[in-house]
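ok so i was messing around last nite and threw this chain in just to see what happens. nothing serious, just curious
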Amino acid sequence: MTSSVLVTGAAGRIGGYLRSGLPPLGWRVRCLDLAEPTEPEPDGLPWVIGDILDPEAVEEAMAGVETVVHLAGIPTEAPFADLLPANIDGTYRVFEAARLAGVRRVIYASSNHAVGFHESGSLLTASARACPDSLYGVTKAFGEALGSFYADRYGMDVAAVRIGSCFDRPPGERGLGTWLSPGDSVRLVDALLRAPSFGYAVLYGISANTRAWWDLGPARALGYRPEDDAEVFAEQILAENPALTHDDPDRRYVGGRMAVTSAHHRDLVPGAGRRAGGRVE
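result:
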């Protein structure tokens, strides 16, 4: 493959996984971020230094690419005034710039927090309704809706990937079900880059976890073949951490603790989250 791929937010953690993993698979990667990373050492990939809110920077970054992997944005809960420019306005600007540049495919980094207020306990399918657990989750649900619009109106392929916990190792007991390994993050994006035209697709971004919370069927249908399983970390993680009770937000809700934390990072009273699909009061 020789196709060019633009990765926005390329200096972040997942961006780093893709910068390392996609070029060996034949993809020509271009990076867009506010700055190049200082660690690890620069990888020699072409960079556009700029903000996704800067039309000139985004236009420069889009020129000549076939696919955009949109990772840029605030990656956690924050006041809405902070989330609005980065996660909503910025996401719109990336999609619109992609359309104007003739880009035919966008892989959008959504989040499990777009459906985070669903209760855990059964395998959640990609058809589950948007059920954000936070303002951050609301912005990700917006991005999913925006991607659906661009797919339907303009004929673009848009994959909205509800990413779980993408770290070097699972972060705690909840991560045994929600982990996306660095290697599988690359395998997932590679599969979505190679897949035949699919229109609009929503799928979960996790590894082949024995304790998986979410259905991988739609991702597998597009060619994803995960190779890692968080279970290899289970003994160590369970020895290091107290077992979660059923009422612990990290076990009760798909989105974990974010379902009972306000936009200003003040813990709400225990049990404030209503049943699945409810709201935090």
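not much to say yet. Strands lie at 4-8, 28-33, 47-49, 67-70, 105-111, 157-163, 165-166, 179-180, 200-205.
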